[in-house]
Every structure is written in structure tokens, then in C-alpha cells.
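Sanity check

After download, print the first record. It should look like this:
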Amino acid sequence: MAEALEGAEKTRNNMLADIAHELRTPLTVIQGNLRAILDDVYDLDKVEVARLYDQTRQLSRLVGDLHDLALLEGKQFSLSLGRQDLSGIVREVAAIYQPLVEDQGISLTLELPEGVSPIEGDGARITQCLNNLLNNALTHTPREGEIRISVEQNEDTVELSVNDNGDGIDPEHLPRVFDRFYRVDPDRSRQTGGSGLGLAITQALVHAQGGEIRATSPGIGQGSTFTISFPIS
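Expected C-alpha cells:
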């Protein structure tokens, strides 16, 4: 009992330390820029306003993600479960991302067979999961790379996979990719404005809907695949 309590306390303290670290980075940038403006180091122009705005957006995203994760882990997150057309959700999300993908010089391919059975889930939360996986793929796929989204039906599940031919993941990192604030490449993830919580939230949302999620990769530089299995309705 004492060991369990000690472990829970250690986990809580580690989480608080992680949160403080993630909040400190954008706050330091904002404070430094504002101090420089007050000291007349440079003028307050649109470029500086845009830079400060980007940092506040990162803070807002982090706070929102923390709130979602706290609700999920506390079993206080409401879901609207029902029959969902997974291929239809993929088409809608892909259409929204197409301009961004093209702007980054990346090819987006859909593999959506006909006659896939409806799944049981929350349409809005499935969309959120796919958004998180696509954002992750875009972060780690270079120009002229490729992202492929596929749907495949098995006996009692339907699988949604997001595959890229980007950075890849070292096998030793795979068990931790869904941990809070865990980043395979911390510097690159922070540069792209990620909160470090997207995959943790995705895993929690998938589990809340009775599904499973896994990550696979042949290794560094060989791309990665994230696959979600949803129960058939």
C-alpha cells in the first residue's frame, strides 16, 4: 500500500514538473520579447506581434490539451457514441488538410475500400484522433514525402491507419510514444508548436471508445504507422 502511494505521488510530481517545463518555454519567449519592447530594443511591429501571438496560441493549446487529458483520465469526459462511417470521416478530414499538405510539398493518399461496416464511436472524437495523427505525421514528414491514410475491415473491428515515410521511430522509443510530453525529437516538436500531449490524448480517446491504438516503425528514417482499431457497430 505504501509503495503504491509512493508511486502515485512520484507520478504526480513528475507530471507537475513536466507541465511546469512545458509552460515555461513559451512564457520565457513572451516575457523576453515584451521586456525587449519595453527597453526599446526593437519596435512593436506586426512581426513581433505575430511572434508573441504564436506563443500565446501554443500556451492556449497546451492548456486545452491538459484539460482534455485530465477529464479523460478522471473518467469525466462525455462521449456521444453511435454508428459512424469511418471512411466518410477520413474524407472530410483529408479535404481540410489538403491545402496544408500541398503547401508542405507532401503527397496525401487515401485507401478507402467500399462496403466497410459502420463502427461504434463518437464522430467528433474520432475526428480529433485523426487530426492528432495527421499533425504528428506532418511534423515528421519532409517535403516530397508521403502520408497515407487507410481503412481496413477485419472480422469484428475496422482499422484506421496513418502511415508516413518520414523520420521514423527507433524501436526503443515505441513503448513511450503515447506517454505525456514524450517527444522522440523534442527540439523539432517544440518548433512546430506541438504540446507533447496529442498522442496521449489520442490513446485516451481511443480507449474511452472501446478501441485500441498501436505505433510501429522499422526504425529511424524509415517512416512510421499509427493504427487505431474500432469495434464494428
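If your output differs, re-run the checksum step. Summary of this record's structure: The longest strand covers residues 146-153.
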